[in-house]
């Protein structure tokens, strides 16, 4: 649409330009057609929104057809079509149609979004209802039946929320959703063993306490998912970003730097109050029993220095407001630089304090001595030993919770801040649950299910410790400016790793010129996929091997086109390179399929096909070579080369699909003619 509206109104238009504009118009219409089909399918499944979705789909379809008609240049070759309205005679028509199209498409998207939200809420309600039944169950047989149903409902809920998480654009919401889903994922196994333990030992108070803890946490996580999906915060919830010291320093520095442009931007009192709030929060570090004496002294020293430099800045600021001179202006600039430097030093010190403390703590607890001791005291039925190691685990839990709070202050990004909060909550809750599970085992030392239950909670603790070490690396990367690909929640399954050559691919953000070049290449690729789809539709036999290969290549090329726009399923350069490897393989498969057809053809026709195949095969091998060649810190160059090769391969694909279709038709006609002649000869012979 943007291409159509922005095209230059030259008086002279070459055939190439006219054809390109017509292809863009057709591509828009085809895309709208695909979109409308999906919209209509959603409407048929949701009667309460059917009428609204169908109206919006009809509007979109009409707009797409209007754009196709206005860009149809085939009629320009006929003299009788002089009075016909086209994009060249009336550009406003295309603009109106584009507005109607965007409006109707947006309506369909919003209505479809309501459908997805409704699906998630319905799924959550099913899970909650089954959980209530699980809480009240008294027999083991009944529990097994209900838990089987609960498992299926949780799988459905996981799929719906996983898709929603991928669709979310807000990184903060994405991190919150991931944290809530991680809780549900881990608690499902805990719920199984905790409930079985309760059924086996119905009079054990610690077993009931353990089970209630799991149910409570799952209910909170389910509510959190619905809050994120519906975008409704409960009353009284505060924004966690206000708690972070690093966020406060960032905002404060922006405020003082704004004084360069505007001396009356804000009051001195506000600036002083903002700094005091930041320095007050550093007390979380200085008051902590785990902070070393050296770090505490240095933090206090830098806090005092920041206060003094702010006073100096305010003094110069007041002078600058009353009389503007060059020397005072320079003095103000120096004061801004000094306080910025002090705050940067404070950030470094806080980061060093928190990360060093976290690293030491993780190293100290890496062997999980306390967990092993709790398991041993449980199977021995040693109540005194239980009391001793439960106390040690509580101390360990308090240490980890406090370190998570300190890491939250220096995390550097909102998603990592949310991950710190999630880790803090997990240690807090899981620590108590391990103690109650250990108490149950100690009271029933021969119980296999009580032992299994304790193992499950200990594994959850160990998993969170492992996640915390990954979180620490993430925080260090952000602080050191080494942040890699897009943030993904740490405890969820990682994406598939590609071959070793991809290790060199890091996030290498292209500049505006490079982005424009990739977008232009992508647009041409998008048009070629439309051409390929048009050729594929001509084939009567949609299961033909050539059609299958062509359809697969077109689908992958369309994903690459979406990647150039920052959309679609390919989110990282690694995913793109992997897709290109598969695309090259599919190209070679297509070449083999076409060679099979060529063996059935006469020499002239066979030669035509082989010439096209001989163009395609080298391109496939070249693309494979490029994907496997490591280009250190040159991701854009690699992507640029790959998309250029892909575009050339798609151009050949369009030619091959058209040529194969014609030659196959010709072959069928010749075979039919030969069959009819043979039949006639046979009949004559009989006569």
From TrEMBL:
One of its GO terms (cellular component) is cytoskeleton. One of its GO terms (molecular function) is actin filament binding. GO terms for biological process: cell adhesion; Rho protein signal transduction. It is found in: Cytoplasm, Cytoskeleton. The keyword Cytoplasm applies. The keyword Protein biosynthesis does not apply. InterPro entries: Alpha-catenin/vinculin-like_sf (IPR036723), CTNNAL1 (IPR030045), Vinculin/catenin (IPR006077). It holds the Pfam family Vinculin. Keywords: Cytoplasm, Cytoskeleton, Phosphoprotein. Its main location: cytoplasm. May modulate the Rho pathway signaling by providing a scaffold for the Lbc Rho guanine nucleotide exchange factor (ARHGEF1). PANTHER family: ALPHA-CATULIN. Belongs to the vinculin/alpha-catenin family. This is Alpha-catulin. It comes from Crocuta crocuta. The lineage of its organism: Eukaryota, Metazoa, Chordata, Craniata, Vertebrata. The gene is Ctnnal1.
